[in-house]
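so im writing up the methods section and need the Isochorismatase family protein record in one place, dumping it here so i stop losing it
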Amino acid sequence: MGKRAVVVIDIQNDYFPGGKHELEGIEEAAANAARVIETARRNGDRVIHVQHVFPGQDAPFFTPGSDGTDINAIVAPHEGETVVVKNHPNPFLRTDLKQVLDSDGIEEVVVVGAMSHMCIDAAVRAASDHGFRTTVVEDACATRDLEWNGTTVPAAAVHAAMMSALGFAYATVTDTDSYLRG
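--- predicted struct ---
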């Protein structure tokens, strides 16, 4: 097994068109994530899927037992791939993700998924804090418009702000084509 793991975060049905919490560009991001995942599988890198399930039935999305919590078919786990279920934005918080990575001797974590401003941010910062070399494949991530004090911040600006912050101190930020060429 390689010393690299691709960590696929929350590419779940509720984020896709018709879901409870649609993201801008999720279909393109998921297609890019699928390319990263397939390359990882061919190279013998570890692929770990993270699935967010809120703990209560009153959740705004990712409701326990709903189709919206299912990992989308485009990136569905293969037999033998680990699925880490989380209840918080940070996939390391109260899960066994770090133990899974450590048990395989993983040194580098490659992050793809959703949402750029929330779970991707939390995952990348935590991975870096835990000492993993961390890469974000930015066009394999998606987000949505946000609102603050009556101002709508477009998804593209949210994404750019997050990637610039992560690239400053926490991770190498790249795009799918560059990552796959590397």
